[in-house]
Amino acid sequence: MLFNSAIFIAGFLPVVLLGFFLFAGTGRQRLAGLWLTLASLVFYGWWDPQYLPLLVGSIGFNYLLGGYLLKRPSRLVLGLGIAANLALLGFYKYTGFLLGAADDAFGLGWEAPSIILPLAISFFTFQQIAYLSDAHDGAVVEHDFLNYCLFITFFPHLIAGPITHHREMLSQFGNTENFRPRFDNISVGTTLFVLGLFKKVVFADPMGAEAGPVFAAAQAGAALPFLDAWGGALAYALQLYFDFSGYTDMAIGLGLLFGISLPPNFNSPYKAHNVIDYWSRWHMTLTRFLTAYVYNPIVLGVTRRRVAAGKPLPKRGKMSAGTFFALVAYPTLLTMFISGVWHGAGWQFVAFGLLHGFYLVVAHGWRALKTQWGWKLDSDKLIHKVPAVALTFFCVVIGAVFFRAPSLEGALNMLAGMAGLNGVLLPTSFARIPGLEPVAGLLGIAFEPGPFFRPVLGLQIVLLLVFCWSLPNTQQFMGRYRTALGWRPTTAWVQRALPFATWRPSAGFAVVVGLLGFFAMAKAMSAAPTEFLYFQF
User: Fold this and answer.
1) pLDDT digits (tens, 9 = 90+) for 282-324
2) Where in the cell is it found (predicted)?
């Protein structure tokens, strides 16, 4: 079931809210929790009921194992539990890819089986691995079965995140103040849901319609001209941005309708001034999980081995190349490799992860050099920030090509067009720009229509990039009220200049949001709903 579908908006959500208000409004907290759990299972099973036992079985297995680890911590049992979760994920997500790769490498004649990837398996697997690890370490403070089930299945985050942590969710489920209808939560939650739906159907989906044929042509081996390739790549980058931003807003808004705050997961990543900053803004809960449960243990293990071997540890402003590789480059590349393959099974996802790992290593290395030289790490001057943001965005778009392409070959073919290896074609209307025709003639650039790029698409891309870079994000827009869990957004420059750039409950905002919601819902219900991009992971 999709958040942007008629059955969800007009059917499922009103019924679930009515039942929740009935139970929670009369003080029956446990029944309200049970109602939400059952509703979440229906939400999951709506896609394909045959995978519901898989989710329920995974929940039961990890709950029981977590209880055992709480009473009898054992590294062996923890390792077996993590291995079982990864084996389940690996079977559904990577069997076909691994068998196909082995067949390509050794000509074994194997035929990869067709295995359908269950929805949300990557998300609930990571959540439960974190629970097992913390149970082993004694960091789990609550082990209630109903609350645990709701923690895993709560439908606003179940399918595509945020990747919630047991500590931040179980405490909310156990708080009677949360499980009661509140006007402020309903008002803020509804506004967030409407804004997210608008981003999805008005911004993301049209950009996806532009990007899809370009990537399909690259996959088919077409030689894409420069503007066509870049138009497709930028359209996809904007589709991904608004799709994930819209989903995050809708998920957080839905959580608030039930009195639950989900963790922040999106914070204007295209405003990042380096790739380190980017990953602190994009899919923030995935970054948090990978840092806590992958990167930090790797660094800790390497550090212990270096201490045991008598090797030096880094000091501020002083780090040898060997120390940098062992404590920064190696853990970063391995973590981002895992991030890449978590997103999907394919060599293009391996390339995506390693490319971002390389970006991060370069960024950390540059910061280490600046520290060693006594330079300021980050500049507040516009003359420095603008090129930094532009360079970061350029790097992210290159990475997004691997993220979107159906294969590594398709991604490389797309990049060839973006590099200008297939020539440049300018739309015929550009010939009317004074002085451009002679310059184009000197460079050997022809004025003729390309297969995909149109001036109107270029204008749409520019306007949406201006939107991304200049306006406050949703959390800033709603910054005076409770939105994401523990989130304290900074004030955007537009909000300091224009008071109406900050939301508050008023008749004016109600009318504007109502009009946006009417338009978005009319558009969403006028055609078959499109999936959110992160549903495939």
Assistant:
1) 999 999 999 999 999 999 999 999 999 888 788 776 788 888 9
2) Cell membrane
In which region does residue 109 sit, left (phi positive, over 0), alpha (psi from -120 to 50) or beta (all else)? Answer: left
At residue 181, the pLDDT reads 83
Half-sphere exposure of 208 (CA within 13 A, CB side): 19
pLDDT of residue 317: 65
Assigned token pair, 406: 């159906």
According to DSSP, the residues that pair with 425 across neighbouring strands are: 446
Rounded distance between C-alpha atoms, residue 3 and residue 12, angstroms: 10
Measure the CA–CA gap between 484 and 260, rounded to whole angstroms. Answer: 9
- Position of tokens 């297995």? 61
Using DSSP, state whether 283 is helix, strand or coil.
coil
Three-state DSSP class for 492? coil
- Tally the residues of the chain: 537
Q: What span, in angstroms and rounded, lies between the C-alpha atoms of 392 and 386? A: 10
Residues 6+ apart with CB under 8 A from 127: 151, 152, 163, 164, 165, 166
Joined tokens for residue 472: 């406050």
pLDDT-flagged residues of the chain (< 50): none
Q: Give burial (CB, 10 Å; 0-12/13-18/19+) of 258.
A: buried
Q: Is 318 helix (H, G, I), strand (E, B) or coil?
A: strand
> Which residue, among 242, 252, 248, 244, has the nearest Cα to 189 in the 3D structure?
252
Contacts of 23 (CB under 8 A, 6+ apart): 29, 31, 32, 35
Please classify residue 433 by burial: count the beta carbons closer than 10 Å to its beta carbon, then call 0-12 exposed, 13-18 middle and 19+ buried: exposed
Our answer to whether residue 343 is catalytic in this structure is yes
Which among 343, 356, 364, 384 is annotated as catalytic? 343
Angle between helices 166-173 and 145-153 (to 10 degrees): 120
Interacting residues of 371 by C-beta distance below 8 A, sequence separation 6+: 316, 317, 377
